[in-house]
UniProtKB/TrEMBL annotation:
Coiled-coil region: none
Ranges for domain AB hydrolase-1: 66-198
Keyword ATP-binding set for record: no
Protein's UniProt name: Alpha/beta hydrolase
């Protein structure tokens, strides 16, 4: 594991220190952002002799934050700032961010195994897993494949199998389904940009972010957008691998590791809450999940609790104040419940596909 690299993060400077490190995983190294709390519960400063960051003491609660299908760990600063006293570990998933050079295979199981490797490298035993969009699916599979690592799940507009996109022919191709699901996100991955300002212009025109640039939290969006570009001008490109996005999107519906985790012979046995954004990926009134869809899943999963977060869309649920308040609040409740419940099961049994 490479030694941590510190960098300023103005959004979280009052509550956390921020560093990145690269963790060896299958095929290369995974970039990981780590926010350590400042104040009385801060870990000891410094690095371990092996070049890794010093693990947080047991007294410091830890959340593992897992981003969405075309995002990066830089989606999380607003939520981190609302979690004082909490250590937040957030990777760039395989094929995204500064982990975009990692090869396949992709898929929820591969991502989950990468996350377990990250926890091992940091000396972290158990976490509350906090996943947004596809990151929620990864978190569910992590809790199933590596049950001793996850005490509770906070799912943010994801993690439950998606209904098929509407308006498509029964014989629609995978590419057609992907474009119906992600919209401009697919177009973005196919483009190059002359500079960061042109890329910001793309996001200013995105319906989900159209008003965000005039809000007090615009710096959160700007940091997320600027981090996403890689390469050299005038041919900068979004970091996410199209191959990774395409492969991973196949597992967002019923089937594969998610089906095993939720409805297999040994289904998930961990408390979970899902926060639903009432508006979709384009800020449209049709949400990713309908109330009826989630009601059907609550009947199948007695441990599932769902909650709507008013006034936000699929993206702004982790960046705007109403969304951040809800996400951070549920994360703090989950961490408090873990403390009152005790350390959880001691079994090292893992579930493999």
């Amino acid at each position: 594991m490479t030694a941590p690299t510190t960098a300023p993060d103005d959004v979280t400077a009052a509550t956390h220190t921020y560093a990145t490190l690269d963790v060896p995983v299958a095929g290369g190294r995974l970039r990981v952002g780590v926010w350590d709390p400042v104040g009385p519960h801060a870990p000891e400063p410094g690095a371990r002799p092996d070049g890794g960051v010093r693990p947080a003491p047991d007294a410091v609660p830890t959340a593992l934050a897992v981003h969405g299908i075309t995002a990066s760990h830089r989606a999380w600063p607003a939520v981190v700032a609302a979690l004082p006293g909490v250590r937040v570990v957030a990777p760039d998933l395989r094929g995204r961010g500064r982990s975009n050079g990692l090869p396949g295979p992709y898929g929820m199981g591969a991502h989950a195994d990468d996350l377990a490797t990250v926890l091992d490298a940091l000396g972290i035993d158990r976490v509350v897993a906090l996943g947004h969009s596809m990151g929620a699916f990864v978190s569910v599979v992590l809790a199933h494949r590596h049950p001793r690592r996850v005490s509770r799940l906070v799912l943010v507009d994801g993690g439950i199998p998606l209904p098929p996109p509407t308006g498509l022919a029964p014989d629609a191709t995978h590419d057609e389904v992907l474009r119906a699901l992600l919209g401009p996100a697919v177009e973005r991955l196919e483009r190059t940009f002359a500079d960061h300002e042109e890329y910001r212009g793309f996001w200013r025109a995105h319906p989900a972010f159209a008003s965000a640039w005039d809000e007090p939290w615009a710096d959160v969006v700007a940091g997320y957008v600027d981090y996403d570009l890689v390469g050299e001008a005038p041919a900068l490109r979004p970091a996410s691998s199209g191959a990774a996005v395409s492969a991973d999107s196949l597992e967002l519906y019923e089937g594969g590791p998610l089906a095993d985790a939720l409805a297999g012979d040994h289904p998930l046995d961990v408390p979970l809450v899902l926060l639903r954004a009432p508006r979709g990926l384009l800020d449209e009134p049709e949400a990713l999940y309908s109330p009826e869809h989630l009601a059907a899943w609550r009947a199948r999963l007695p441990g599932l609790r769902t909650r709507d977060v008013a006034g936000i869309n699929h993206y702004t649920i982790i960046m705007s104040p109403p969304g951040v308040e809800a996400v951070a609040g549920e994360t703090l409740r989950a961490l408090a419940a873990v403390t009152s419940d005790g350390p959880g099961p001691a079994s090292d049994e893992e579930v493999t596909a």
